[in-house]
Design a protein that fits this description.
This protein is of the alpha+beta class and 115 residues long. The protein contains 1 helix and 7 strands.
Length: 115
């Protein structure tokens, strides 16, 4: 097989996979806390963890969080805050419950919890 034929075939396979991924079959519904959400669309997920650091100059928070079922494993990660006011009253070491907008990869709600 010529190199150019292989490139065309590879492009067709990649394009086909992209079309398949965008099909209704790929957008199957899942249930989370009684709310239907489509896979591959904007979703708000909840998690719990601890504040590792606040970075006000970049409007970010670093969280060490537990597994968020069906979304991501336990990890330490920085997130943009949807609003700077969300960090008000928080400090490193605080146990928190939070919501992440997975499309924007930002924390849209956060509250201290007694853990």
């Amino acid at each position: 097989m010529k190199s150019s034929s292989f490139s065309v075939l590879a492009a067709v396979v990649v394009l086909s996979l992209g079309i398949l991924a965008a099909s209704p079959v790929a957008a199957q519904m899942q249930m989370k806390d009684g709310i239907k959400m489509e896979m591959g669309t904007d979703a708000i997920v909840e998690g719990e963890g601890k504040v590792v650091a606040l970075v006000p100059a970049k409007n970010q928070i670093v969280l060490k969080h537990d597994e968020i079922k069906g979304q991501m494993g336990a990890m330490t990660m920085g997130y943009v805050l949807a609003s700077p006011s969300l960090a008000q009253g928080l400090k490193p070491g605080d146990a928190v419950k939070f919501r992440i907008d997975t499309a924007k990869k930002s924390v849209v709600a956060i509250e201290r919890i007694g853990k």
